[in-house]
Amino acid sequence: MELRRTLRPAAAITTLALMFGLTACGGSAESEPVSDSGSSSSGAAEEVLPLTVARGGVNIENAVLADEQGFFEEEGLDIGEMQLTGMGGAAANSSVISGEFDVAATDAVTVIRAVAEGMPVVAVAGTKSADPDYEGEVSDGVVVPPGSDIKEWTDLEGKKIGVPELGGLPHMATMTGLIENGVDPDSVEFVPLPTDALVEAAAKGQVDAVFTFSIFLLSAVDSGFTRVGTGVREYLPNAPQVLWVASKEFAENNPEALERFHNAIEKGTEYGNENEEAVRQAYHDHTQLPAPFIDERMVLEPLNVEFDEEGWNTLLQVMKDEGDLREDLTYEEIVWEGAR
């Protein structure tokens, strides 16, 4: 779909960067231990269970729509006012361990590292995985600035590539892409940069290429950047990206509440996948993203609450190959048994 008017990349990027920096506002209600005596079947819960939930700033639709469409209530959950936490990072893990929230949105790599380091957290439901069968526009990957001589993966040998974080999913996907295209990753210098500074760094020649995503990538392409490589769904197929996490203690003591949460999120996911306009409206109502981007440029990939074990194992192996993880770390250690 063509834009009716061009977004200014700097303004759009600043907006999303601010959104990523938002933290939960106000205190969440203190949650009492949750009873497991209720039923998890839709609309048939005998006891309403309290659950404090912190959503992220992106891939918000399954949680927002589950709330707005009454799916949490239908499953016998009282989530109160859903809070907003920063997307991913150690903060989400810490918030569930401390009991500030019962369930929080985060990213898969953060959870994997947390479990590997002994933090008592588990992944309890999915939001987004790298779907290799999705045929829509790719909204992540490696791009180069106008006038660059880099045309394909092999041209990246000996170059500087900016990534949002060393060891993060974009870094892992880029390294895998280099290897699969015959380029030694050790020949490339990876430069960690703030997400909202990647495109500008490439434009100024501080790096030769960047791996970016969403509004950052699409705005860059609209301003003349060229795609060199596709992203996570090609090189880490079915790998988990965005998900929900709880503390191990909460998961062990409150499986009924988490089962109901999983059911409600699944309903929200299905509703969103079938109602594109409702998803775009959710982004209008709950984010600071520019309206033209939401309406005309934003790529809405289908979300999926279920986990793909093979995709998890692919990501785990890449991280182990990089020396990031202990070799015996398994899918079963990371994912709550009710979500496998």
Automatic annotation (TrEMBL):
Keywords: Signal
A Pfam family matched in the record: NMT1
SsuA/THI5-like domain sequence ranges: 62-274
Compartment annotation: Periplasm
InterPro entries: SsuA/THI5
Chief subcellular location: periplasm
Any one Gene Ontology cellular component term annotated for this protein: periplasmic space
UniProt record similarity statement: Belongs to the bacterial solute-binding protein SsuA/TauA family.
UniProt-recorded name of the protein: NitT/TauT family transport system substrate-binding protein
Species the sequence originates in: Citricoccus muralis
Native organism taxonomy: Bacteria, Bacillati, Actinomycetota, Actinomycetes, Micrococcales
